[in-house]
Design a protein that fits this description.
Helices cover 55% and strands 2% of the residues. Helix 2 packs across helix 5. The chain contains nine helices and two strands, in the order H-E-E-H-H-H-H-H-H-H-H. It is mostly helical and 195 residues long. It starts with a helix and ends with a helix. The protein has two domains: 76 residues, no CATH class; 117 residues, no CATH class. It is elongated, with a radius of gyration of 18 Å. It has a two-stranded antiparallel ribbon.
Length: 195
């Protein structure tokens, strides 16, 4: 059986795995804008804009895998969630690749606040909510863009992983709908794909 990172990477590469040499794509330029810097393209989803010092043409899948692990899997906090919430970890990783690590992490933290930390009268709190209230000292989870031990612990305590995943997808939708309308169908197809 593949490990959680490889499973997440396989999903992401279904959407990011093609080589792109589109001159109009700002990600293919080292300066991050059309005509700015050197045109290098994108391979395995590793773009010239995000990795200007990488030789994109010679990039191997093993090198791309190492970059994804170092710059997206670990910094996003997906590895902290992989054993308790593997679908959530895969979606977080994919969103980190597509929206940036901090942006994806903030989406997840807002989803956690929606599903797990809402105000509930003390006499109506389930045992899992009591655990979360203690973890967060009766506050909402801080939306700081870092999926650290507290965020992971709250997710571990929350029994509603499917609801968390749905809320995360909703957060991503809200992010995408504010962007270029020409790209929305592709992003929503990716967001709707089974994880």
């Amino acid at each position: 059986m593949k490990n959680h990172f490889d499973s997440a990477l396989t999903f992401t590469l279904q959407h990011e795995g093609k080589t792109s040499t589109d001159l109009d794509d700002p990600g293919n330029w080292t300066g991050g804008a059309k005509g700015v810097g050197e045109f290098k393209g994108t391979r395995y989803g590793i773009s010239a804009a995000a990795f200007p010092h990488v030789d994109i043409r010679s990039l191997t899948i093993e090198q791309a895998r190492a970059l994804y692990h170092r710059y997206y899997w670990r910094p996003s906090g997906a590895q902290r969630l992989a054993f308790d919430a593997p679908d959530l970890a895969r979606r977080l990783f994919d969103l980190a690749v597509n929206c940036g690590v901090a942006g994806a992490s903030r989406m997840l933290q807002r989803a956690v606040n929606t599903v797990c930390t809402g105000h509930v009268l003390p006499r109506r709190r389930a045992a899992w909510r009591q655990v979360i209230v203690q973890l967060l000292q009766a506050r909402a989870l801080r939306v700081d863009g870092i999926v650290g031990p507290i965020t992971a612990e709250v997710i571990r305590a929350c029994p509603h992983k499917a609801a968390l995943l749905a809320a995360l997808v909703g957060e991503a939708y809200n992010h995408y709908r504010r962007l270029d309308p020409a790209d929305i169908p592709g992003w929503l197809n990716r967001l709707g794909a089974s994880i």
